[in-house]
Amino acid sequence: MKLKINNQKINHFFVNKKPNVDWFYKNKLNEVFLFISNEDRLKILNFVQQQFLIISNIKIISFFHLKSQNKNIISYYSSKELDSNSRRNIVNFIKYIILNKFNLNFNFEIINFGISRINEKEFSMEKLRKIVRSVLVEKKDIILPVYSKLIRRKINEYLLKYTLIKYKTIGPIGERKIKIMYKLKNK
Question: What domain of life does the UniProt record list for this protein's source (predicted)?
Answer without folding.
Answer: Bacteria
